Amino acid sequence: MSFFSKLKDRMFRSSSKIGEGLDALVAEGAEEQAPAAEAAHEAPAPAPAPKVRPDPEARVAPEPAFAPPAPAPETRPAPTPAPESAASPRSAPSEDAPKPGLFGRLFGRAAADEPRRVLDDAMLESLEEVLIQADLGPETAVRVTANIAEGRFGKKVSTGELKAALAAEVARIMAPVARPLPLYPQKPQVVLVVGVNGSGKTTTIGKLASQFKAAGKKVVIAAGDTFRAAAVDQLKVWGERAGVPVLTAPEGSDPASLAFDALTKARAEGADLLMIDTAGRLQNRADLMEELAKIVRVIRKVDASAPHNTLLVLDATTGQNAITQVEIFRKIADVSGLVMTKLDGTAKGGVLVALADRFGLPIHAIGVGEQIDDLSPFDPEDFARALVGLDG
């Protein structure tokens, strides 16, 4: 199974929440607008205008070909062209034009039968509510709906068109931050991993270490959360599974001292990466800030450029609380990138869009399960399509 298929299958709570919301949004509006359309249909039709035979010498501009949105961050999705009037010369059937085949007629009829609703102020307000409920946040939801409305306002749209436009807008926001964890020639490359307890920090370290080991890198893990025996034991399990050494210290030991010993050993053994787990007790921010600052001071006695990466691991189930965590850890530590876990267990996956829109920090990877291959580099287009419930 491809990671996109896994992502789409396991993000069902987010995708179904947005998808069902968009389905209801269009269907309800289409039902409300139907009586008005029927009343207009029953009204006496105006006298037909005299037909004017088109000049055979006149040249008619060809229909513009559909072009997908450009990948540049500032480029907004191209608006869907409005359906041509039946009286337009351009829509008149041409004798030379090939007739659609059976499948073309079937799918064309299915698209024509799909409910459509005029994109007006009421629909945009409801769309904002759907996005806010999916945890995109008020500010991001307003910007996204405004961009979707551009070129489409006052025109009828179907659910499929709305999902495609939303996916394109989400991908546009996410594209600039989709960057894999950079690897440097510096040996060992020190990766400091931070995050609140229960965010999936320990599991993420184990998965990354296993993947780097499988790619031929020599990895060392330091179990720096010395106040939680369960975190140390979990890292030991992942270390054994991946064949990666895990350096530990007695419970309650100084994490900075362990980090110093681990870096010294990793350098002596020629390791490519040293991954350091840390505590995540936000209830006393002053102590945590001092603990992380001390770790950085101590390891810089061995390598003045360390740490080379500071990863913040976030739990998707926390929703908008993830924004607060980013704000706090950016003050406590020099966060260089994000990893989002547990996207398979929440309807709040849209918070990742809010994080990208607000902070612009690189998103290195996302997790959708407990297995080793359930952590993958972040792909903005796959994520956007899975979030809104589109097929691959």
Entry keywords:
46% helix, 13 helices, 392 residues, alpha/beta, two-stranded antiparallel sheet, 10 strands, 8-stranded mixed beta sheet
Model description:
- It is built from 13 helices and ten strands.
- By secondary structure, the chain is of the alpha/beta class.
- The strands form two sheets. The chain has an eight-stranded mixed sheet, sandwiched between helices. A two-stranded antiparallel sheet has the order 1-2.
- Strand 8 (337-341), helix 12 (351-359) and strand 9 form a beta-alpha-beta unit.
- The two termini are 12 Å apart.
Outline:
With 392 residues, the chain is of the alpha/beta class.
Q: Could you list the spans in which at least 5 consecutive residues all have pLDDT below 50?
A: 36-95, 102-111
Rg from alpha-carbon coordinates? 27 Å
| First-to-last CA distance | 12 Å
Give the helix level as a range of percent: 40-55%
Describe the protein's topology.
Blueprint (H helix, E strand, L loop, with lengths): L2 H8 L1 H31 L59 H12 L2 E3 L2 H13 L4 H12 L6 E3 H16 L14 E6 L6 H14 L4 E4 L6 H14 L3 E2 L7 H14 L4 E5 L7 H15 L9 E7 L5 H12 L4 E5 L9 H9 L3 E5 L7 E3 L2 H9 L4
Helix pairs in contact: 1-13, 2-4, 4-5, 5-6, 6-13, 7-8, 9-10
